[in-house]
Amino acid sequence: MEPETNGTWCWAWGNASWEQGEAGEDCWVPMGQWEGPEVVLVPILFGLFFLLGLSGNMLVLLVLWRAKVPGPRSPTNIFILNLSVADCSFLLFCVPFQATVYSLPEWVFGAFLCKWVHYCVMVSMLVSVFTLVAMSVDRYVAIVHARRSLCIRSRRNAALGVATAWLLAVAVAVPTAQHQVLVSGQHQAPNRSFCWEHWGAGHTSAKHAYKIVILLLGYLLPLMLITYCYAKVLFHLHKKVKNVSKKSERSKKKTAQTILLVVAVFLVSWMPHHIIIMWAEFGNFPLTSTSFTFRIISHCLAYSNSCINPILYAFLSENFRRSCRQVCPGRCLLKPAREDKRVRIRMDNISVTRSTTNM
């Protein structure tokens, strides 16, 4: 099939430069020789993100599966487990196939994978984001409403939150699979096939609405909820926790820094991706070497989020580190803190011990 020509700019790259194409919307068409340093450098760079992210998340899955303490089914570990599964799925379905877009002149994986890959990428991205929101709410309840947290933060509620995240993501991502098509027979490249997002004539408003929904559900609303929850946690630690020792004060400051890091990582990781999507959808995204580089950077930042999540949400947890020392023979990698250096307000996925806060 051949999509309608709408006079818009087309993603077309050749000889490390963008050129104008006349094919359909949101497409990549090779114009000229398929060469340049990006053909080699981009897949190598993506491969590093792939290996780092997959190794970190697989280690998290291994530890949670084999550890006896604090138990793989605790509410916190359920969220960490789901986050690692979502990040692994995102890396597996996104990075290898996206690398081929930069290194191959056409889509070589067929019509089914054209739909399936893009659908899985959208689902896993949304599940990862929804899980980060659920974890921030979980931390908020554990610290600010500690007395009621025992009944709220149950394994049943955590599992229900995980199921809700997957069901919502699966439903929201359906239009992605519907409108991802395999196109061939373009006059610029008549013997090549391309995997394009194609909505067809008369569906521009629906496409705009869907892009806005993804922006709201996949970035803006999660960012607002994560920021709100952690802001309340910081306020509680600053105003409500009184009469603490100097060590506890230092730990409270470290907790605040970690919270700010969590919010900043989410903000920076996904902002360029959504800027490009909105710019291309509602504006006139310039097709230059600079914009091409910006697109690569946006991919790298999105992949880095799946690499950093295991560090932020698992390895900074004292319970997880204790479980890791059980599973991994190299205990010197995650040595327990000396008793005289432990502080009473501690990080446990950005949580505070009840004995310290008297909550």
Automatic annotation (TrEMBL):
Assigned keywords, A-Z: Disulfide bond, G-protein coupled receptor, Membrane, Receptor, Transducer, Transmembrane, Transmembrane helix
Predominant place of localization: membrane
GO biological process, one term: neuropeptide signaling pathway
UniProt entry tagged with the keyword Transmembrane: yes
MF (Gene Ontology): galanin receptor activity
Domain of life: Eukaryota
PROSITE patterns referenced in this protein's UniProt entry, alphabetically: G_PROTEIN_RECEP_F1_1, G_PROTEIN_RECEP_F1_2
Transmembrane segments: 40-65, 77-104, 116-137, 158-177, 212-237, 258-280, 292-316
Family stated for the protein in its record: Belongs to the G-protein coupled receptor 1 family.
Name of this chain's protein: G-protein coupled receptors family 1 profile domain-containing protein
Species the sequence originates in: Ornithorhynchus anatinus (Duckbill platypus)
Lineage: Eukaryota, Metazoa, Chordata, Craniata, Vertebrata
